[in-house]
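It is worth pausing here to work through a concrete case rather than discussing structure prediction in the abstract. The textbook approach is simple: state the sequence, then state the predicted structure, then interpret. We follow exactly that order.
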Amino acid sequence: MLMGYKDRLNIDTQNPGWINLSFQLKALVLFDLNLNSVPEFLFYQQRLRLIDLSHNKLKGEFPVWLLQNNLDLKFMNLRNNSFAGQFYLPYRLGNMVWLDLSKNQFTGKLPRDVGNKLPSLQYLNLSLNHFEGALPSSLGNMHDLFGLDLAFNNFSGETLRNWLQGVAIWNI
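Step two, the predicted structure:
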């Protein structure tokens, strides 16, 4: 595990000559370090189960390659960064149980099949972004969901209230 907090770890994110790229992490927590880009060495990681890059200054599009390269990823926290553009999922991610992308700059509609691609999700926080449009009905396929926060977006249409009755904590 590699951890950092409040500027107590310095990482050269774009020139990882200091690192043997064959090492594999299972967990990485680098929150509140003022990182402005996703560390390049993460592209070579394939066994991550937990990644927390929250409360940094990360920019650009959603790093979908983190999902593609780490099929056993269960926990992803990218909260409070500056990721922008569309959010999409490459394929079914049956192991993911926690996803927090809140307080970024994501735009557009949620993928229609988001619930089919994240069937085991227990917690989803997409609040404080710029999502719009109707909520996809596939959200109803997330049978294990106990926490959902979609507040402070521009969603419209029906909120699937019948399905939400089974969700313990929700905010829309």
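Step three, interpretation. The radius of gyration is 16 Å. The mean pLDDT is 88.
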